[in-house]
Amino acid sequence: MKGKLIIGLVIVGLLVFFGISVNNGLVEKEEAVEGAWAQVENQYQRRADLIPNLVNTVKGAANFEQETLTSVIEARSKATSVNINASDLSDPAKFQQFQQAQGELSGALSRLLVSVERYPELKANSNFRDLQSQLEGTENRISTERKRFNDTAQNYNSSIRKFPTSIFASIGGFERKAYFEADQGAENAPTVDFGN
């Protein structure tokens, strides 16, 4: 009887130790996802901070298309008003709303930079060139941080779905994190027309 009690206590002790180890590993991975998310937000904030300077520089160009500037300003306003924090990363609807707002801002910026081609005096402006270069660098950083976030989220999501970790993950309330996905229509190549 005493031997069975000792074996039972050893088994319970091992299960508790395993559970603690699994929980700590999941906490570490969840923190890595949140850290990766903070870097994504950091780069989006950098872009949002650059836009007013870019818009003001472009406004200085005579007869620049006001509609283009307005769309950039409105898209920036919308993108900065849609906030998502680390606790919302498990909510695909909120994540999609955030991604859509950021995508609209990317599209508006792309249209702005394309329309600048018709203004040689603006393209020659060193302030504009510096801002454009910083913005392009920021877009690259955003892409890099989004990939890192997706990789980290994928590692975490895989961990919480594997047996026997999935048992402890469901008990601990660990939820799947959303991924950044390509914008709708990204699978279609853009149409290039040099006819004009």
Low-confidence stretches: none
CA-based shape: rod-shaped
- In N-to-C order, the SSE pattern is HHHHHH
Helix content: over 70%
Task: Give the helix/strand class.
Answer: mainly alpha
Distance between the termini: 92 Å
Beta content comes to: under 5%
What is Rg?
A: 24 Å
* Tally of separate helices: 6
Average the pLDDT over all residues and give the rounded result: 86
Number of strands: 0
- How can the largest sheet be summarized? none
Can you walk through the features of this model?
With 196 residues, this protein is mainly α. 74% of the residues lie in helices and 0% in strands. The chain contains six helices and no strands. It has helices at residues 2-59, 66-81, 92-115, 120-123, 126-161, 165-172. Helix 1 packs antiparallel against helix 5 (126-161) and helix 1 packs across helix 6 (165-172). The protein starts with a helix and ends in a 24-residue tail after the last helix. The mean pLDDT is 86.
